[in-house]
Amino acid sequence: MIKVGDTLPEATLQEYSEVEGNGCSIGPNPVKVQDAAAGKTIALFALPGAFTPTCSAKHVPGYVEKFDDLKQAGVDEIWCVSVNDAFVMGAWARDQKTGTKVRMLADGSGDFAKATGLTLDLTARGMGVRSNRYSMLVKDGKVATLNVEAPGKFEVSDASTLLAQAKS
């Protein structure tokens, strides 16, 4: 499992972006994790799936709400990573009104989740292998803090916890 001090794994996520004003879209576009994180402070949070209850009601809204506070604490970008395809993540971004506050990044085949060692096997529930719920503060591609949730919990990967860590 990835730990504090480790470099983010080499992986390519996908991002589907709306073009404001004309209803067209851009993407899906590849996002090379190491390149995109270089020289930046990233508030990265991952979750089991788009449109799932805790993820939609608490996890994503918390990061949208704390956007300004995270920016003031030195965070350059907020990333939401989930084992879904880019089209689903784009639709979820519209539903959650993330705008330019949270980058909704698709880990379609779970390559990033597997490379971090933070997978969650939900096969028995018909969802296959997903990402565990966690958050991390990433500085110049290296993990500065890591908050991994226990199964079925939402206690340490929330925006308030990561904000407190960004401020310290």
List keywords for this structure.
168 residues, EC 1.11.1.27, alpha+beta, 6 helices, oxidoreductase, PRX5-like, Redoxin, Glutaredoxin, single chain, peroxidase
Describe the structure.
By secondary structure, this protein is of the alpha+beta class. It has one domain: Glutaredoxin (3-Layer(aba) Sandwich), CATH 3.40.30. It has helices spanning 33-37, 53-65, 67-72, 86-96, 111-116, 159-167, and strands at 12-18, 25-32, 41-47, 77-82, 102-106, 119-122, 128-131, 134-139, 142-148. The strands form 2 sheets. Strands 2-1-5-4-3-8-9 form a 7-stranded mixed beta sheet. Strands 6-7 form a two-stranded antiparallel ribbon.
Could you provide a short overview of the structure?
The protein is of the alpha+beta class and 168 residues long.
Task: Specify the structural class.
Answer: alpha+beta
The percent of residues in helical segments reads 25-40%
Number of strands: 9
Strand content: 25-35%
Text of the CATH class? Alpha Beta
As a whole number of angstroms, the C-alpha radius of gyration is: 15 Å
Secondary-structure arrangement, i.e. CATH architecture:
3-Layer(aba) Sandwich
CATH superfamily: Glutaredoxin
Mean pLDDT, all residues: 92
Number of helices: 6
CATH level 3 topology: Glutaredoxin
Low-pLDDT segments: none
Organism: Caenimonas sedimenti
Active site: 55 (cysteine sulfenic acid (-soh) intermediate)
GO molecular function, one term: thioredoxin peroxidase activity
GO biological process, one term: hydrogen peroxide catabolic process
